[in-house]
Each structure stands twice: as structure tokens, then as C-alpha cells.
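Figure 3 (text version): C-alpha cells given as input.
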């Protein structure tokens, strides 16, 4: 599965710690040459040292992925140091610290959260994608959240941004159908990071109603249980699977650390037929039918 990563160049944003660091290490161990970026040089240097200790190849560049010129320089530096980017992992995002009753939030905090968690990923994709298309292939993985697929009262800005990232992934996958670039959204699950510790603290103050937590199922109704939490390494495993090309047929789908990605690929026909693992609106008359990859394929024939 990982043979295709040998020598490929991967750019991992938010790669200085936590989930981003675990993803970068997994890709490097599989043979990719990895550029990690964040706004903290010391953390990036630690990630590079760990990758090199694993026997992998990595470089680091400090950049703010919300700034267009900084991302353009990051692209140039990555290509200069490692080569053309074949895999983009949009992991950078703010912690879910902007929590609480909506009427108490400042507009500045709302805007910053959405920019951190959605617009930064869109900007990086906009800058990196033309090169992928010119070279005839690539993969983009957007690190979203389960907060983007379920109602999250008192977590409005963060959950709206992550829902937008999931929808962006699906929209872009349809645009790129047949052009060699696959796009995925993932949730790493509940991982002990600054973001999730903030959510756990939020739920102590604003617990979900019992019926709502039960409707969501685990981990939402069992956040205090050890079994509800994932390790950062699980996100690395999931990204490694998607980076391998094994799931390219399911471009645009939402993959979860709590799921079984191999089973999803094995049941791809069913997933495509029933439009599973996508954002959809159930109605009294069924699910509103959107354009699908199959529609696009038939239209091009």
C-alpha cells in the first residue's frame, strides 16, 4: 500500500505538534519526503528531528497559512527543498477555544475561528492545486472534525467551519473528477489536544441533552470513557491509507478514525449508490439528490 509514497513530496500544515506531527511522521516512515509548516519554529524543528530519527526525510518552513503571500513562498520553498507536492494535508486549524453561548462571542473570535479552520485550507489548496493538475495527479486531505457532521450547540464557529471544510472537499472532488486529483475530508476522532480539551471543558459547562448525546452515539455520549479517545497515530494511519491511492474511487467522501476505511473501499459500489459519507439533507421525500461523480462521468462520455 505504501510503495506509491516512495519519493513523493507531502506538505503537512499544522505539523509542529499533535495530530499534524503524527501524520507527518507516518508519511515519512512510508517513504514520503515531508515538508511541515506552522507558526512555531521550535515545534517544527522537533518534528523534523523525530522524522529524521525515524530514518525519514523532512524539512520545515515557518508560515501562516492564512496569508496568501506566505503560502506562495511556502510552495516555492517546498519545491526547492524537496520537489513538487503530490500530497497536501490541510491540518492547520485553531483550537476550539471560541466556545459558549453565541450571543457572548465576539465577531472577531468568530471570524478568526472560521478563517483558521476553513479559509486557510482553501487558500493552501488554491495555491497547490494548479501544480498538481499540471502534473496530472495529486491528493488533498482536509482534516475536519466530527463537529462538522453533528449539531454542536455552544461550538458554533468551529463546527460551522468544519462543516464547510467537509462540503468544500466534496465540491472540489466533483470538480476534479477525471483530472487525477483526489480529495478527502477526515476526522481524527477525539484526540487529547488543546482543541478537544477545550470541547471537553465546554461539555462540562454546557452538556448535551441526554437524548441528543444518545442520538449521536459514541463518542459524544461517552466522552469521559477512555474508549472514546483516539491517538494522534490513528490519524496518521488514516492519512497513510488515503495517500496510498487505495481510496481514490471514494474521492469527496468523509473518512473517520472510528470507521474502517478498508471496508469502505470494499463497499464502494454501495457507498456511491446510496451517496454515503457525504453531507446530505433527508426530507419527507427522501434525500435531496445532488450531482454525483457518476453523473459527471456519464455527462463526459
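Below: residues designed for each position.
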Amino acid at each position: 500500500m505504501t510503495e506509491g509514497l516512495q519519493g513523493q513530496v507531502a506538505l503537512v500544515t499544522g505539523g509542529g505538534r499533535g495530530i499534524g506531527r503524527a501524520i507527518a511522521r507516518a508519511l515519512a516512515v512510508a517513504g514520503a519526503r515531508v515538508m511541515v509548516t506552522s507558526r512555531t519554529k521550535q515545534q517544527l524543528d522537533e518534528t523534523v528531528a523525530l522524522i529524521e530519527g525515524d530514518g525519514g526525510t523532512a524539512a520545515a518552513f515557518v508560515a501562516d497559512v492564512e496569508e496568501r503571500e506566505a503560502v506562495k513562498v511556502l510552495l516555492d520553498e517546498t519545491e526547492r527543498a524537496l520537489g513538487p507536492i503530490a500530497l497536501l494535508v490541510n491540518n492547520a486549524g485553531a483550537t476550539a477555544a471560541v466556545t459558549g453561548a453565541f450571543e457572548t462571542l465576539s465577531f472577531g473570535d468568530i471570524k478568526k475561528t472560521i478563517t483558521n479552520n476553513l479559509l486557510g485550507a482553501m487558500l493552501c489548496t488554491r495555491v497547490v492545486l494548479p501544480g498538481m493538475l499540471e502534473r496530472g495527479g495529486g491528493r488533498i486531505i482536509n482534516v475536519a472534525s466530527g463537529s462538522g457532521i453533528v449539531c454542536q450547540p455552544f461550538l458554533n464557529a468551529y463546527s460551522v467551519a468544519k462543516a464547510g471544510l467537509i462540503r468544500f472537499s466534496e465540491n472540489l472532488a466533483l470538480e476534479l473528477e477525471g483530472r487525477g486529483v483526489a480529495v478527502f475530508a477526515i476526522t481524527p476522532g477525539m484526540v487529547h489536544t488543546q482543541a478537544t480539551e477545550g470541547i471537553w471543558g465546554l461539555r462540562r459547562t454546557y452538556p448535551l441533552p441526554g437524548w441528543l448525546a444518545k442520538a449521536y452515539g459514541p463518542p459524544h455520549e461517552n466522552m469521559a470513557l477512555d474508549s472514546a479517545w483516539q491517538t494522534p497515530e490513528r490519524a496518521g494511519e488514516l492519512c497513510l491509507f488515503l495517500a496510498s491511492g487505495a481510496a481514490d474511487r471514494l474521492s469527496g467522501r468523509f473518512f473517520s478514525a472510528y470507521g474502517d476505511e478498508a471496508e469502505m473501499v470494499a463497499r464502494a459500489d454501495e457507498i456511491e449508490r446510496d451517496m454515503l459519507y457525504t453531507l446530505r439533507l433527508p426530507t419527507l421525500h427522501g434525500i435531496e439528490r445532488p450531482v454525483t461523480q457518476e453523473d459527471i462521468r456519464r455527462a463526459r462520455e
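Residues 3-300 form a domain with the Rossmann fold fold (CATH 3.40.50.720).
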